[in-house]
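Let's inspect one such protein example.
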Amino acid sequence: MVSIDKFGRLRLPNVRINVSKVVEFMGFVGRTNDVELVMYLLENAVSLEKMIIDVRDPLSVGKPLEFNETDKKQAARECGRQLKANLPFGAKLEII
């Protein structure tokens, strides 16, 4: 079960995830909780083949602002790129 502790940090169970080959994280902005969740998935999704980090706001998809480029999106992409070193062998990282 996923929960949040009194300091606002994610509390994630230490279990292996065997079914996810592709994981897409939409709305990634590079906050500590975002990074912790991605790291958890990278460490525990044993059959992971591809991690997609999408910096678009889920509420903007299909609207004119969907592809507006901002400094926040650029910073989130850079944060996502830094996670590449933690990918399991053979897995790919795609940043949208």
Remarks:
- Residues 3-95 form one domain.
- Residues 32-44 form the longest helix (13 residues).
